[in-house]
Design goal:
Length: 192
Amino acid sequence: MGLLYDPTKRDANGWHRVVFGEVILPDVPNVYGDFHSRESVRQFAYGFMLNGFRFDLDHDNNDVSNEVKVVESFIARDNDPDFVAGSWVLGIQILSDDIWNKVLTGELNGYSYEAMVRMFGVDLEGETSLFRRGMTQPSLTDGHQHALYLVLDDEGRPIVGSTSVNDGHYHGIVRHTITESHAGHQHIYQIV
């Protein structure tokens, strides 16, 4: 039986059309205030794969399961060079030209799980800061990066921020996970 879609085939620009992202990070409250232990991350990751849950874009109840396929799912190990240790990472191949173009333009820059969950409150202790710094992801076109500086609100969402100047330009930051467009492109970033 042949494959309906050849996952090793590259498009005209040489892309496999696969994106990777951390779905849940352990021990870090997300922007919605949800918090997962390493064991909770593992339970969600395994449950997703075992139960064959479907995909939805932007939490709009638009099932796109025939347009995207999971090609990898794993829990990042300690000292992983790309992902936070203990996080659940999905690699998704984008079959839809429309969805792939939204990924390339930055309109879609992440994904999340959707599940029925039981929530309970916890008190977290630790030092908090409303200031963050880090690095953007490399540009898809030429690989350059920027240092970034952010001020966050009490829920961990960016209020204001900016990147450093690189290649004669910088990017403003006013939303979670992606910079503003400048010089014809945007950068994805992650703050932990």
